[in-house]
Each structure stands twice: as C-alpha cells, then as structure tokens.
Amino acid sequence: MLALVAQPGVAHSTRVADVPDAKLVEGRVPIRALEIGVCGTDREISEGVFGVAPDGEDTLVLGHELLGMVDRDGYGFSRGDLVTATVRRACSHCLACHAGAPDSCLTGDYSERGITRLDGFARELVAEDPAQLVAIPPSLGRLGVLAEPASICARGIRHARAIGGRQPWDPERALVIGAGAIGMLSTYLLRLAGHDVWTASRDPAGDPRAELVAACGAHYVSTVEQPLAALREEVGGFDIVIEATGNAQVMADTLSMLRRNGVACLLGIDPRQQTVELDGPVLGVDTILENRVVFGSVNAHRQDWLAAVSGLDRARERWPAALERFVGLRAPLDRFGEAFEHRGVKATLVLSAQ
Known about the structure:
The chain has helices at 40-46, 95-98, 147-164, 181-192, 208-215, 228-235, 248-257, 280-289, 302-318, 320-324, 336-341; strands at residues 2-6, 15-18, 29-38, 60-61, 65-70, 82-85, 88-89, 111-113, 117-118, 125-128, 133-135, 173-177, 196-201, 219-222, 238-243, 258-266, 293-296, 327-332, 346-350. With 354 residues, it is of the alpha/beta class.
C-alpha cells in the first residue's frame, strides 16, 4: 500500500512509497485514512531535525492528524463511522501513564503516531487499538481532520483554567499570539467559552486570517502595526495568554502581557540556540506581586480530544462558513510538497474522497 514516509534525521527524504499492508489482527480496528492534516512537526521531520523511526526500521510513516473511516464492524464501531485517533501512547512504566495520562508521561519513553517510534496514519489503511479511537460526528464531516490540533488547544486551555483556578479567578480577556492552526483554533475555543479574545499576528489587518478572527467576534491585531507592548497598555493586560508562534522571545514576552493572576500557556516550540530578553521588573516584581504564571503544554489527554471534537462541532454550528475556511489546501498524497509549503491555517493530504 502507498504511504508517506521519511527517514528521520535525513533532510528531504520524504517520499511516497509502498509499505507492507496493515496487519489486521484481533483487537484492532481497520481504519481507512480519508484525510491527514499537515503541521510544523511534519515539516521538521521532513527537514531531518525531528522524529524517531520505529525500532529496527530506517523510515517512519508520517501523519499524526487523522480523519479516517472504520472499514469493518467491531469493538463498538460500525463500518463507515468517522473517527480520529490519539497520537501519544503510554510508556507503561510511570505513574502518569498508568493513570491513563500519557500526555503527562514522566519518563519521556512514550511513542507517538507518525512522530516517535510509531508509524503514522498517512497510509491507505491503518489497524488501530479501539481504545485510541475518538468518534467524529457526521455533522462535523471532513472538518474532523482538525481534531488533533484542536485537542492540543483544549489541553492548554484546560490547564490554564486549572492553574488560574487555584485561587478565586474570573478570567475575562484572552490573548492568542499566532494565527496558524493552533492560534486560530484556540481563538475559536476561547470565544465559545465566552471570553473576549484578541488574536495577534504579523499579517496585515486585511489578511484572510484576520477575517477569520473577526468572523467569531474576536479582535485581530497586526503586530507590525501595533506591537504587543502597545496592545497591553491599551487593553490593560490579559487573564489568559496562548502563545502559538513558536518564537522563544515571544514566549518570554507573554509574562509581560498578563494582568493580575494571569496565566500564559506556551504551545509553540522553538529549538534555536539563542538568548532572549525580559525586563527585570516584569520577572522580579510584577510576576511575584501579581501572581502571574507561565507554563508549557504539549499533546492531549483523551478528555481533551473529546472536548476538541465537541468544540469543533459547536463552532461549525455557530460559524459554519468560517470553520470551513480553516482548511485552505487539500492535496493528494503525491503532492505532499505543496501541503508542506502551504502557509494558510491548515493544509491536508487527501487519501480518499469518500
């Protein structure tokens, strides 16, 4: 069968290749991949800077953002059901994984579909553990391909609320920095929760992503026209900040964007060797006197997947035309290069038109 594969550690090794058919063994559900979302992690693996092949293998099947269709009845699923699947799998020897929370694995020995030690979903047929499957409602349809990035956002927001809720707290204003898939989905989930949201990006005010921000009732800010520091002064700070640019300096700057008791969640990743700057009083005075918190978040718990799917379906009902525009490019598997180069909110690879 055809699959999108790469050799981790080798730049530009990504290609479409024949791989062995999926082993349809007892205890696994056959899933026919319909659509696979593409993100920065896939690009990093393709560029040779990330990823780990399965034990004993040189190549890794890519694809961790799955929308699939059940191919055979069984284990509580029916043929034709739309599903997605979790990405991170437990290490099986730490407290968090034993508690069913591999998103908080304490050892780092976890595996991840299409990323670390476990082949991904960008292949015609996948055999999956039914416990890892998450149902996609028919009403959501092809937009179910957004479930994985939305689950990342849902986890970050859940943890921000848990941290803020350690004391009396009534968050009103939220700032999302970055207008890619993570930033845009965070914007919509925060709007669904009733927050007044500002979304900041370098794109000009007339950019299509600015229109998507406005479509859900959030405020768009071009940081070229209004720097974050000026926005903070104008608004008075934020209760929740979601950083989704993948820029370490912006991550440090989130601390200065918070108001009293504010919480900032870092969802971007920036592996570059660099020095970042932070005004001393922001760290040495404001963070302490105003109980500010900055934390990082990655991956998602099953409850976050369920919350993400529910949130996407509610967003589809409330802003149907806008959510459809999140996927700006759908390309066949052999045109993966176009999807990797796409810089809109989301690009996907289509394996089946069913």
